[in-house]
Design brief:
The complex is a heterodimer of chains A (157) and B (217).
Chain A (H helix, E strand, L loop, with lengths): L3 E10 L10 H15 L4 E4 L19 E8 L2 H9 L3 H6 L1 H4 L8 E7 L6 H14 L24
Antiparallel strand pairs in A: 1-3, 1-4, 2-3
Chain B lengths: L2 H7 L3 H12 L4 E2 H8 L3 H13 L3 E6 L13 E6 L13 H14 L3 H19 L5 H10 L4 E4 L2 E4 L5 H6 L1 H16 L5 E5 L8 E5 L6
Antiparallel strand pairs in B: 1-3, 2-3, 4-5, 5-7, 6-7
Classes of the chains: A alpha+beta (157), B alpha+beta (217).
Chain lengths: 157, 217
């Protein structure tokens, strides 16, 4: 989509501390999956913590046991193909081993002007909007197919 | 065209052969290639291909096969590929898809991944027991073809062109693709030197079956 990119955040409450041996299957996959993402068609940006290669050290207002994963893509299809049509699917298949059953929506996406890098706070706000109001053009999931022009611009402060 | 009419178009054995040939290729197919593939004359193939297009079973695009363009490049050739739309007809009327989608939605919300995978593995093993061991890659290919996966051999790997659970797998990928892998693991396990593994690619089933590099189990 020219002029716009798709930002996404997904979160998960881990069942064991990250250095627990029961999380090893998950942590062992991270580097190679991130490399696949970095080289995936349509990949734009992903959140990385200071000094790391991933976002596992980042905590938000969602809680100390909640991992965040955040990235920007050129299109919904590019994101879909990475999440569900790459080695990443093999990780999703085993998610129940490492993450608690989510009680609320755990992923959100929204359109951003190309070139904008969203902050984690902005992303968490979008997730909370989705949790509060359900899908809308400003916070939606894979099931919904909103386009960039669907969003009513927020009044500029 | 209604599903039952579209399906009835495949009753003609020549059309069915053409349809199956086109569906099995990894590229769009010209009239000439389809005719050769089905072992019939080009004009007859053209007639039946158009019937299949009218029925919505095949789709057409056109491209200049010469790779040239502009005046003198010749008329673009009509190319055929399988249509994406699904056709089904049941007597008496049944609606397992809605039921499956609802069940999957609930299983997804409750994260019953592990339980579903265990059930799928049992199902795969039971099917293997009924069919007899696959034996080798060719045997596995026949077994997978019988279950609708449309396997294609690429060296030591069987790529599965069709996902029998397509709509469900698009709606609940993590749940349904995990189920699918477990089902195929159950079906393949015990066949010496073969394994099923996840290797999702756009447009294909999420699993491949391949010769294992060594005999580790």
């Amino acid at each position: 989509m020219t002029g716009h990119h798709l930002a996404q955040l997904n979160v998960g409450t881990f069942r064991f501390p990250l250095d627990d041996v029961r999380m090893h299957g998950f942590t062992a996959m991270l580097d190679s999956l991130n490399e696949v993402a970095d080289n995936a068609p349509g990949f734009v940006w992903r959140l990385v913590d200071d000094g790391g290669n991933d976002a596992t050290a980042i905590r938000t207002s969602l809680g100390d046991d909640v991992l965040v994963n955040m990235s920007v893509w050129e299109s919904r299809d590019a994101l879909w193909d990475y999440v569900y049509r790459s080695g990443h699917l093999d990780m999703l298949r085993r998610r129940a081993e490492w993450f608690h059953v989510p009680k609320a929506p755990f992923q959100v996406m929204w359109w951003i002007p190309a070139g904008h890098i969203p902050t984690v706070e902005e992303a968490v706000e979008r997730l909370e909007t989705l949790r509060r109001q359900g899908p809308s053009p400003s916070a939606f999931g894979f099931r919904d197919s909103y386009l960039p022009q669907d969003e009513t611009p927020l009044p500029t402060a | 065209m209604e599903d039952i009419e579209a399906i009835a178009v495949l009753q003609d054995p020549v059309r069915r052969r053409l349809y199956e040939y086109v569906a099995a290729q990894d590229h769009e197919v010209s009239r000439n290639e389809a005719a050769e593939g089905a072992g019939i004359q080009r004009t007859l193939a053209a007639f039946h291909l158009d019937k299949l297009v009218d029925a919505g079973l095949l789709e057409t695009g056109s491209r200049r096969l010469s790779g040239r363009s502009g005046p003198g490049a010749g008329r673009p050739a009509k190319l055929y590929r399988r249509a994406r739309a699904e056709r089904q007809f049941s007597v008496p009327a049944r609606d397992y898809r809605t039921a499956a989608d609802l069940l999957a939605e609930v299983a997804e919300a409750a994260r019953l991944d592990t339980e579903l995978q265990a059930a799928a593995r049992r199902e795969g093993r039971a099917a293997r027991a009924a069919a007899g061991p696959a034996g080798d890659l060719a045997g596995a290919k026949a077994l997978l073809a019988a279950r609708g996966y449309e396997p294609r051999t690429e060296g030591d790997v069987l790529r599965l062109v069709n996902c029998p659970f397509h709509v469900l797998s698009e709606r609940h990928p993590a749940l349904v693709c995990g189920m699918n892998l477990a089902l195929l693991e159950g079906l393949i396990e015990g066949t010496e030197g073969l394994r099923a593994r996840m290797d999702p690619r756009p447009g294909l089933c999420c699993v491949v079956v391949e010769r294992s590099k060594n005999n580790e189990r």
